[in-house]
Inverse folding.
């Protein structure tokens, strides 16, 4: 799997290229790359004929979920969430711990009312 396989990861890759001087962004980019690199490319609609495709799909979903948590942690620590989740700018490691500690539904509830600003910029 690579960044171009998932729209949100592609937007982050573009953001990372534009902010290669930011240590937090580059660390997040590296962490995400480590999560997605060993995962096979997500199967296409026509590839669902074997059990291997199901295993690949499961691995893709898990990688996207882990990457999403890293993205939100990076966005929080670099002030790229609007409106801000907290009244302060959290440190990166604390942000990672927070987003990794949320259950799936909790993550959805927290992120529903916010947006990552680099995703908005990528639409233009």
């Amino acid at each position: 799997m690579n960044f171009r396989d998932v729209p949100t990861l592609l937007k982050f890759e573009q953001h990372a290229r534009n902010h290669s001087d930011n240590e937090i962004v580059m660390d997040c980019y590296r962490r995400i790359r480590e999560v997605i690199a060993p995962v096979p490319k997500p199967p296409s609609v026509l590839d669902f004929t074997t059990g291997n495709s199901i295993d690949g799909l499961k691995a893709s979903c898990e990688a996207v979920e882990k990457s999403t948590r890293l993205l939100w942690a990076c966005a929080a620590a670099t002030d790229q969430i609007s409106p801000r989740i907290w009244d302060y700018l959290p440190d990166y490691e604390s942000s990672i711990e927070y987003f990794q500690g949320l259950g799936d539904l909790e993550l959805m509830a927290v992120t529903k009312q916010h947006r990552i600003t680099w995703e908005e910029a990528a639409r233009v």
User: Anything to note?
Assistant: The radius of gyration is 15 Å.
